[in-house]
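Handout for the seminar on molecular recognition.
Each group receives one record of this type.
Step one: identify the two inputs.
Step two: read the structure output and locate the region that could contact adenosine-5'-diphosphate.
Step three: write two sentences on what you found, then compare them with the reference statements printed after the record.
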Amino acid sequence: MRDNQGMEFEAVIGLEVHAQLATESKIFCACPAAFGAPPNENTCPVCTGMPGVLPVLNRRVVEFAVRTALATSCKVREKSVLARKNYFYPDLPKAYQISQYEMPLAVSGHIDIEVEGETRRIGITRIHLEEDAGKLVHAGAFAGAQTSLADLNRCSVPLMEIVSEPDMRTPEEGGAYLRRLRDILVYLEVCDGNMEEGSFRCDANVSVRPKGQKEFGIRAELKNMNSFRNVEKALEYEIRRQTEVTLDGGTIVQETRLWDADAGVTVSMRGKEEAHDYRYFPDPDLLPIHVDQAWVEELEKTIPELPGEKVARLVSRYGIPRYDAELLSSSRRLADFFEASVAAFGGNPKVTANECIQWKDVVAAGKLSPETIAHVVEDRETGKVSATASRKLVELAIETGKPVRQLRDEKGLTQVSNARALEAIVDKVIACNPKEVESYRGGKAGLLSFFVGQVMKETRGKANPRVVQEVLKAKLG
Ligand code: ADP
Ligand code: MG
Ligand code: ZN
């Protein structure tokens, strides 16, 4: 943004992501970590903070975080510490949250993102483990008083916090970073990545500064965005707001602001003066976490091809556009499906990519086989079925589970591409429309589509329009 003296501003963005780890059980007890159970069903004396209990760290939680660290080029600390973060809130029965503070599990990594055809490297400051808190349900008036109920199912559900460096400069870069990070976690199968259900949450820190200035401006921390699009919109709004305040001679204060998606604005929630003093200290009930090199090497072998690598490989190996490769790589399953479909026939990968993208929801639901796509792509390339028929065939295959080629023959959806077979019909159409033939020959080239239409009608849509055109052109001269 530019003011009337030509001063230009740029934004600085750093993102904190809380990802819920997809483990069976919670981080310090054996309660199920699953979402959606009746209130307080998934609880025990440990996660409800009863006196005299001892937490035991879930090894799988550490494994998931180490794999994430490896996939984001972070250095995994051999020793890290779980600390108590003290605060009082009714959804936190222990009155402290176990987290990591001075000694996080992993540090100094990065993720590469692609924005407007350029690759940008976004630094990752740290990855640490922590437990989630419970949930308050505001139940309304009860016996004359406003009542809130506590559901502690979420207490001690494992979270991983991933903090970025303030390396992003536009909302678009913020969105690209989040999408890529989400895809990485989903590829690793350490998080389901569901932003609406809150298993992937983002706090966005943003400040503005005059372009060319080295020091960062004062930042606001934005909360309450439950979709990637909302993060981008909240950032756009906040950058505009901070720029305007600065241009009007005002000052930006460090504060937490909530995104109001309906109004499309951010509103102040609390300022820095209300910031907590959490009195962190190492949890005396838990030993430091030790991750030895041998384990790291073992986990290294479990890292699959990651989204960025997959996109690059699909582009170079199959010659498909980057945009298609990105869409296909948005899910490992879809990308695998695409490669299996190409392998099953070896036809034009671009056409196969289009089909896979068109049917991606059905692929995700596991209701389509790569052979189905391979066969319709092949039949289209050889002219055996039309584009319209191929769509219908895929729909029928999904519905009935029958092979498409069987359906094609059963339903008579084969397209007539044989020029010989079409000649008689073309002759008939020419004979029946002498006036049009005369006009066409007199220079009204546009009438060709009229003839094509007539042939299609005669064949009940079964003729290959491309071949019909060729035959017509030859006969009409
Ligand atoms: P806190 O724990 O108070 O949120 P952190 O130091 O962990 O503070 O920083 C949180 C996030 O804020 C990080 O992602 C960091 O990159 C980002 N950040 C820090 N300073 C700025 C700034 N001036 N403008 C934008 N983002 C910033
Ligand atoms: Mg923060
Ligand atoms: Zn429990």
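Reference statements: The longest helix spans residues 228-247. The CA atoms of residues 20 and 159 lie 4 Å apart.
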